[in-house]
Write a structure and sequence with these properties.
The protein is α/β, with parallel strands linked by helices and 338 residues long. The protein is built from eleven helices and eight strands.
Length: 338
Amino acid sequence: MNVRRRHISAVALTAVAALGFGTLTACSSDSAAAGDTGSFDVVASFYPMAFLAERIGGEHVHVTSLTQPGQEPHDLEISARQTAQLEEADAALYLKGLQPSVDEAIGQSPIATKIDAAELTTLEEHGTEAGHDEEHGDEHGTEAGHADEHGDEHAHEDEHGYDHEGGDPHIWLDPVRYAEVAEGVGKAFQKADPDHAADYRKNTAALVKDLKTLDEKFRTGLANRTTDVFVTTHAAFGYLAERYGLTEEAISGLDPDTEPSGARVKELQKIAKEDGVTTVFYETLVSDRTAKTLAGDTGLRTDVLDPVEGITDHSRGEDYFQVMEANLTALRTALGAR
C-alpha cells in the first residue's frame, strides 16, 4: 500500500475495514437505509468514495451516499436523517477537507469505523487561482500546484469555509493517486472482514489494474499536443495536470462558487492568447455562465471537463471510468493532441 507519508493510525485502518458496501444505485439514494441490511454497511461521503466502496466491497457490502446525484458535493449540509444513517452504519468513507459538514458529522458520530481517504495518499497544495511561471514568470503567478498572487488570502480556507490546509482534496482525478487510495481501502477491508478478505483482495487488484490502464491511456493520448495549458471553471484538476505535464488555469479556486476577480479574468484572456488556448472548460454540476462569458470575450469554444464529483443523466458516461475517458477525449481536442 502506497500510503501518505504521515502515519496512518490503527484506528483509521480498523475504521476502513468496517466499511459497508452495496450498489451505486443504493449509494445514490438518501432513502437507502444504512444498518441491518445483512451486509457490511458503509456510508460514503460522495460519488468517488462510493465508487471505491462499490468496486472493492462487491456483493459483501451495502453503500449509502450522503451526496445525491446532481448535488454539488461542496454544498452538502448533513440532514438529521443522514446523521441517523451514520449512527446506524458499520463504517464511513470520506475525504477530509472537501465537505466540512461531512467532516464534522463523522467526527461527532459514534460510528466505530471512520476512514479518511486523504490518509491513503499524498496530498499537495494547489492554489486558489492557478497560474504558471515557466514561460511567464511572476506575470501570471506560479505554475499549477502552488498558490499565485491571488491565493494567499484563500490558501487554506475559502469564503464558504472549505478547509484545504491539508492539501487539495481532488485526488480521484489522478488515476495513480486514486489507485493508492483503493489499495489502502482494500487492505483495510481485508483486515476488518477477514471472512471475505480474498474477495476484497481480488476486487482491489482488478480496480487498480483498471486505474493503471486509464493512466496509460492519458499518458499516450496526451503525449503529442500543441499546448500544455487548459482553462477550467474551478481548480479541481491540479493533480491531473501535474501527472501529465499540463498547466491548469482556473477561473475560480478550489471552491467552484467563488467569483473570479477582474484582474484574474484579464490575466486569463492574456494567457489564452499567448499559449494557444482553444477551449474554456465548464462542469456538469456547476453553472457554465462564467466559462461561457470568458469564452465569448476571448473568442474561444466551451466544452465539459467533468471533475466526476457525481454522476447524472447529463454526465458523459455511467461511471468514473467512462467519464474520465470522455475527459481525455475533450482534453485531446482542446490541447491539439495527435
